[in-house]
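Model it.
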Amino acid sequence: MRVAMIGTGYVGLVTGACLADFGHVVTCVDKDPAKIEGLLAGRMPIYEPGLEDLVARNVREKRLSFTTELAPAVRDAAVVFLAVGTPSRRGDGHADLSYVYGAVREIAAAVEGFTVVVTKSTVPVGTGDEVERLIREVRPDADVRVVSNPEFLREGAAIEDFKRPDRIVVGTEDERAKEVMAEVYRPLHLNQGPLLFTARRTSELIKYAANAFLATKVTFINEIADLCEKAGANVQEVARGIGLDNRIGSKFLHAGPGFGGSCFPKDTLALLRTGQEHGVPLRIVEAVVGVNDARKAAMARRVIAALDGNIAGKTVALLGLAFKPNTDDMRDSPSIPIVLALQDKGAKVRAYDPQAMEEAHKVLSDVGYRSSAYDCLDGADVAVIVTEWDEFRALDLERVKNLLTQPVIVDLRNIYRLEDMKRHGFRYESIGREGTAP
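Modeled.
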């Protein structure tokens, strides 16, 4: 099957490469010549484990190609995926659909024969209706079916998620479109894949509801962590105790500095706006957004408190900048408000992240970027663990203690055991657990 993928961002590139790996012939289209030039040279615009090898293999096998020319790719395709950005619109939090609608007009002008246009981008309920209207407006004669097929990829584990999905949601009630989408995903399973066919608007809402629910779990355990600190309990044991209940589950119950990334912040805001438009206040989601914003802002205060309120002129070493490990994504990362707040209080900030420092340069200034964790810690007054990269999980604690001017660690991800930190003589502050002091 010939597939056109419009957009080579995170979703488009991963989806296109995985579909090519299934044996489909995929052409990825992007208007950015520099991005296409880089991809043709084998340079990935994002960091995702395994992606570079996956792309290279399918380019070599001539199943995957890249171009800036939309029309030829669409004209030859049986399926056209829309995977362009839908960022939050400034000022009101609505999803900005200008990139989607711009691409749709170009697609409509180029399609030939029966074509399924698939909205892979995360879009508000009813967007598929507008996409269909635009296509009819540009090409009344076009034989096109518009389908919703939201993505559920975790950054850092996207290839595994795509190839071994919990479910594949397809929003269409058209039988011909169902047959095409079933064929697209047929290689996933020897028998029947976990395909869930719904109405288009239902599919669009499933994506937002899923992300809002997961964001709620994260925010819930963060508030429980605050209660644990005051009540003398351990949030990790509380999370395990409730997570063993299969009605709740253990995932997304890790206390920390708040959620970030490309999905949860944007999608919770967009869902709130959708609720407002339909006269349905989503009070739980509204609370989640407010609590999460306040939490990220509060993390710097924890660092300041660990130095007894005296942060001016002190050097803070941040380990981790990306919003989560195994990605270079800095969008809405908790590290951003932490850095800005510390700098406002007069601290000197240095940082190390295995992948995200180039992206961090674009959003943070006056930060000293270092080449390793130990280089970052050398001569700092306090270490702050912001992202739980594997390489931070087993640091040489004696070496860390000797490098710091004073043995103070603020662990916002709870990656170390309290007893270990106490034995090594650290003043150690974590989330939802009793601190230790030498």
